[in-house]
Design a protein that fits this description.
Elements: H1 2-27, H2 37-48, H3 56-83, H4 97-141, H5 152-164, H6 170-190, H7 195-218, H8 225-241, H9 247-295, H10 306-324, H11 331-360, H12 363-380, H13 386-402, H14 408-432, H15 434-459, H16 465-478, H17 484-522, H18 529-553, H19 558-561, H20 566-596
Helix pairs in contact: 1-3, 1-10, 1-11, 2-3, 2-4, 4-5, 4-6, 7-8, 7-9, 8-9, 9-10, 9-11, 10-11, 12-13, 12-14, 15-16, 15-17, 16-17, 17-20, 18-20
Length: 597
């Protein structure tokens, strides 16, 4: 009966993962429903090798679904491994050939996108030069009023050529259009010898702009807000490429088109505001559920009997059922908030399983184990090998704590006998090592002096700070042993002070790098567009790298993160370093934008 109950609780935990995957599939009915990672790999392979570029939305959906399926499968296998008697921290996911294939095909798609991006950027740059050349020619025509009529056919040819040249860099599009409109209007204003042609062009342009305006006004009735917005962008491109109208109509026509555009843009903005508000509300609701689930695993709320565990389980299952009724949050938070909720659920059911497993153990077996430990402690009580025996007794005490419960009265008697044997040895050791403790106290004071100097460097940095920090670290390491009871506290304070000093140093270095960059671009006479594009690409790469590191961080178990873990510390430092680089890159881009303005 206990095994069936534990199985149902495991299935209840896994159900949350399945619902997250199913919600992701049902949310986008534009694409097929995938049931296995194999189907997803087949589709991504098809997309990677077709002629046209795949839609980013479909690729992102396939990527999201693949890892949701993969994680759900690993979690189910992990639960099965634990239920079969294994330890959760010893579980190792199996290597998945589908995942290697999936990553390879994603790389193909990314390379295609990068190549297409570079080709498009080059095309924009070439088109920019072509349009600038056309502007120079039209501008030159406006400087010779007496020859305007002779230039009319050439002017019309240049206009037709202008319309065929697309696209150009977005940051230059508005300036180009304004100059084009200005020079065209100046040309028409000077056109004395061909007034009929000018009026004919004005009439044709009026018809074109009127059609554009009417199309824009009808977009207000379009149900698909996003489609209407992108159609409006196309209409704006057409407006820019169309010629001028009569001078007295220009402001009227533009105001009408601008009014229609405002309606579409407002609907588009309101659409995303509504989505964002809904996602924020969902995040609040899910965060509240996480806090409730986490509170149930807190030490002070863990049940101590079967009845209390049943009541808590009922509450936890109600929280899981409520979770399924709440929609998605913002994409960057969706996976994080689910991982937080799942971790709380896992912690709860793990503790429950441990409770019943320990409850089933025989008290008599635990008594035998503790008696055996007592005999070992008595054998070591007379030893004078202080260090080795201390370690052995400490290990015996750890083993004692790991042994399951015994009846209260017998447990007290066994403990008194066991601790008495331990104390006999430690009292003798303390009497023999009184002098050594004095030396350790001196070492403790020396190391705290190093910590104090590290803290002083945070408040008042020096020029050769890196060398000073290295010297202080070496000095700390060379100092001898300190009292065992103070070791962990000392090291924690030392580590915090050292990290704070290096953080101060890194921040100062970042500031210097930014100042040098600002000085370099201030004195530069070159176009900074390429530099900005390079920085933008680096920013995107840094964000992807940060996302990867954050994903790696999620693989550390809750139990491991509560203890000293050099590997975890390394991952966290890597995250902070990437975040600093992101902040520096953003400031560099801002500096370029300010200079361009």
């Amino acid at each position: 009966m206990m095994e069936n109950e534990n199985k149902s609780l495991t299935e209840a935990t896994a159900e949350v993962q399945k619902v997250e995957v199913q919600n992701a599939v049902e949310e986008t009915n534009k694409y097929p429903v995938y049931k296995t990672t194999q189907e997803i790999v087949e589709r991504i392979t098809e997309l990677a090798h077709m002629e046209q570029d795949p839609e980013r939305q479909e690729v992102d959906l396939l990527k999201s679904l693949f890892y949701k399926f993969r994680n759900a499968d690993n979690e189910a296998k992990k639960q099965a491994f634990v239920e079969a008697g294994g330890k959760a921290e010893e579980f190792q996911p199996e290597q998945d050939e589908n995942e290697e294939k999936f990553k390879a095909e994603l790389s193909v798609i990314r390379e295609r996108r990068q190549k297409a991006f570079l080709e498009l950027e080059q095309l924009k740059a070439d088109n920019l030069m072509k349009k600038i050349d056309i502007l120079d020619k039209i501008k030159a025509m406006t400087t010779t009023p007496e020859e305007t009529g002779a230039h009319y056919q050439e002017f019309k040819t240049l206009q037709e050529e202008w319309k065929t040249i697309n696209p150009v860099p977005a940051e230059k599009a508005t300036e180009l259009w304004k100059n084009y409109q200005l020079y065209c209007e100046q040309f028409y204003d000077l056109l004395q010898l061909n007034r009929e042609a000018r009026e004919y062009d004005f009439k044709k342009n009026l018809e074109i702009k009127t059609q554009i305006i009417e199309t824009a006004e009808k977009l207000a009735e379009e149900e698909d807000v996003i489609s209407a917005f992108y159609q409006l962008q196309t209409l704006h491109d057409q407006w820019r490429e169309s010629g001028p109208v009569a001078k007295e109509l220009r402001e009227e026509m533009w105001n009408r088109f601008k009014t229609a555009s405002t309606v579409i843009n407002k609907r588009y903005q309101d659409h995303y505001i509504a989505i964002k508000e809904k996602e924020e509300k969902n995040l609040e609701l899910k965060t509240a559920l996480c806090e409730k689930a986490e509170a149930m695993t807190a030490a002070e709320t863990v049940p101590s009997n079967s009845a209390a565990w049943d009541e808590h389980t009922k509450i936890m299952l109600e929280l899981q059922a409520e979770w399924k009724t709440i929609g998605f949050t913002a994409q960057k938070m969706n996976a994080k908030i689910f991982e937080r909720f799942r971790a709380a659920c896992d912690a709860f059911f793990t503790k429950k399983n441990q409770f019943y497993a320990e409850l089933k153990e025989s008290y008599s077996q635990n008594i035998d184990k503790k008696k055996a430990l007592i005999e070992k402690a008595k054998e070591l009580a007379e030893s004078t090998e202080w260090r080795a025996t201390s370690d052995k007794l400490v290990n015996l005490q750890k083993e004692w704590k790991a042994v399951g419960p015994t009846p209260h009265k017998i447990g007290e008697e066994l403990w008194a006998e066991f601790i008495g044997a331990c104390n006999k040895f430690f009292d003798a050791r303390n009497a023999a090592n009184a002098g050594q403790r004095s030396e350790q106290q001196e070492n403790l004071q020396k190391k705290y002096d190093v910590v104090a100097r590290l803290k002083a460097l945070v408040e008042e940095p020096v020029d050769n700070m890196r060398d000073v920090l290295k010297a202080l670290s070496e000095e700390f390491s060379k100092i001898g042993h300190v009292p065992f009871k103070d070791k962990d506290t000392l090291y924690t304070e030392y580590k915090q002070a050292l990290d704070a000093a290096y953080a101060k140093l890194n921040k100062a270095n970042a500031g210097k790098r930014l100042d040098r960059f600002k000085k370099a671009i201030k004195n530069s006479t070159e176009n900074l567009g390429d530099e900005r594009s390079s920085l933008s690409r680096r920013l995107e790469n840094l964000k992807k790298e940060l996302a990867t590191v954050e994903n790696n961080l999620s693989f550390f178990s809750v139990s491991n993160t509560k203890k000293a873990n050099p590997l975890l510390d390394g991952v966290k430092k890597q995250m902070e370093k990437i975040k600093d680089e992101i902040a520096l890159t953003i400031e560099k881009i801002k500096a370029i934008d300010e200079k361009e303005d």
